[in-house]
Every structure is written in structure tokens, then in C-alpha cells.
Amino acid sequence: MRSLLMLFMVIGLGCRSAPPARRTAAIDIALVHDSVPEQQTREQLRRLLEQFDVSPWLYTRTIQIDERAIPHSHPVLTLHTRHLAQDMQLLSTFVHEEMHWFLDERAEATQRAMAELRELYPTLPVGFPDGARDLESSYLHVLVNALEYAAMQRVAGRDTATRVLDFWVNDHYRALYRIVLKDEARIRELLVRHGLVPEGL
């Protein structure tokens, strides 16, 4: 009986999430201008990564913060300093860019999913503020935004995740985020069919 209890304890310890210190230590955060806002954003991001376990969705370990850049995923995941007073928006932006890496590593399945999206949504807006830079990117961002929403629900709860998307609906990719909120279940089914649901979601 005693040995059985010990076995359960070992299994339980092995199933725990990575300790916060290990999560942040595995990420290299560079500052492009080493300005005060960039330094503050780096500390903000480190704090958020200690508080919220997004480790299952870390596909790149190198990040940079650039106060003059629009956030993007490639070639280096880049965040800006806009959300110093908005923790959840910064975390959601970080997760969003990581999901680009996830889909990029599964390019063929992503293309098949986008083809199916075209049948569901024959037209999507292009260009700021409602769409992405071109039509293909708009279809891609429906998938990315859906994964972002799912991950934020998992780590911060549905209410918080929905508040963040309500913010984005009035900010950028507006029509694409509205689709995700309206058709969440349908888009998730599509992602599942194409094997595009990351671990933990």
C-alpha cells in the first residue's frame, strides 16, 4: 500500500506543469531599442508567463520587443509596447503570434483548412481594420484567431478571453474576430478535422 501511494505521488509530480521559473528561463527576450517601455514590456511578459501557463504553445524560444514595430511572428516573434496597461491583450498577442508558428509547421493541413474556409466564407475583408493584408492572410487569420481564443480561454477563462476578443473586434482584424466569436464551434470542428488543434486545447 505504501509503495502504491509513493507511485501515485511520483505520477502526480510528473504531471504538473513546468514551474514558472523554468517557463520564462526557456525564452530569450531581446529588446530592439532597449527603451524604458521595451524594458517594462519585457518584465510584464515575464510576469504573465509566470502567472499563466502557455508553455504547451511555445513554438519559438526567441522573442523580441520593438516599440516601433507591428507585432508579427516571423522571422522572429516580435511584440510591441502598446499594452503596458493591458495584461491580457499582451498575453493574447503573444499567443496569437505563437499560433502562427504552429500553423506554419503544418503548412499542408493549414492550406486544406483554408480551402474549406473559402467554401464557408466566400468573401472576407482585406486590409486594416477589418481584414488582413491580403485575402489568403485573412483566411489564415480566422484560424490563428480561433486558436488564440481557445488558448486564452484555457489559461484565463472564457469570460476574460471573450473580453479580449471584444476589444480586438473594435481594434484590428475586426471582421475576422467577429467570425471567430460567432462561429466558434464550427471553426473548431474544422480545425479538429484537419489536425490543427494544439496540445492542451
From TrEMBL:
Entry-linked PROSITE patterns: PROKAR_LIPOPROTEIN (PS51257)
Would you tell me the protein name for this molecule? Lipoprotein
Q: Which organism is it from?
A: Pyxidicoccus fallax
